[in-house]
Design goal:
Elements lengths: L8 H17 L6 H9 L3 H13 L12 H45 L4
Length: 117
């Protein structure tokens, strides 16, 4: 017996987008998943699984009518975010090295300025 999907791709995509948007707009609300699950009449655990797939990058559902704009938009924003994180991590490494160099220079200068007793 083949597995039948209980929810449409549109419901999955819209509910995941709604959770992501509400998390951004309401960072203190800890009941977002439950509220969105009720709004879209889906199971909270199913919604959590869809969000986990979104987070690990495997969020991609077949779309029978060929309209994949929403999935493409999610994927492109995820790629842009990944690239931004990589850039910032490289920048942090450079700044940490600069900080170590400046600390060494300050130590050397402080030795030179210290009066000889």
């Amino acid at each position: 017996m083949a597995f039948e999907r209980k929810y449409t791709d549109e419901v999955r995509t819209r509910s995941v987008e709604t959770v992501i948007r509400r998390r951004r707009d309401e960072p203190g609300n800890r009941a977002i998943i439950r509220e969105v699950a009720e709004e879209f009449d889906v199971g909270p655990q199913s919604l959590r699984q869809w969000l986990a797939r979104y987070d690990d990058g495997s969020y991609d559902y077949d779309d029978d009518d060929g309209d994949r704009e929403v999935t493409r938009r999610i994927g492109s924003s995820r790629q842009a975010l990944t690239e931004r994180i990589a850039f910032l991590e490289r920048r942090i490494l450079v700044l940490e090295e600069d900080n170590r160099s400046l600390t060494r220079v300050v130590a050397l200068l402080s030795e030179q300025l210290r009066p000889l007793a």
